[in-house]
Design a protein that fits this description.
The chain has helices spanning 56-67, 83-86, 100-109, 111-118; strands spanning 4-10, 26-33, 36-44, 73-76, 91-94, 126-128. It is α/β, with parallel strands linked by helices. The protein has a 6-stranded mixed sheet with strand order 3-2-1-4-5-6, with helices on one face. The longest helix is centred in the middle third of the chain and has 12 residues, at 56-67.
């Protein structure tokens, strides 16, 4: 059974933030398959504030938050310039759903596309699933 581990950018655990992914107060981690999903954990954003726009230390800090949990995919309504650093390690998915629950359904509809992207290894791109 194929599955992916995803982090959703949120402040309240239910809806997406309208800021960049790295600015979320917390991240909801889910294990998602084509026909199932399980909430795994809530991770609070303990990274330092950016010293400058697209601060590489911010990208490193956010990446480290997810390392032990095996996160493969990041999802948000917005990503900043650090997306170029993040997509070296994660598939980054741009969504426009207000609620994480709705985005999980979108992810499941595009599950094969996400798996194909993950299989690329170091050549990951971001996926735009807005309005899909």
């Amino acid at each position: 059974m194929q599955k992916i581990i995803m982090a959703f950018a949120t402040d309240d655990g239910k809806t997406f933030i309208d800021r960049h992914f790295g600015d979320a107060l917390q991240y909801e981690l889910y294990e998602i398959g084509a026909d199932f999903h399980n909430h795994l954990a809530t991770i609070y954003n303990s990274t330092d504030e950016e010293e400058r726009h697209a601060d590489p230390n911010k990208a490193k800090g956010v990446s480290k938050l997810f390392k032990k949990d095996g996160v493969q995919v990041l999802s948000s309504k917005k990503f900043g310039a650090n997306i170029n650093r993040m997509k070296k390690k994660f598939v980054c998915i741009l969504m426009n759903d207000a609620h994480i629950a709705d985005s999980i359904k979108t992810i499941q509809r595009h599950f094969d596309q996400i798996i194909k992207e993950l299989e690329k290894g170091e050549e990951l791109h971001f996926l735009n699933l807005k309005n899909k």
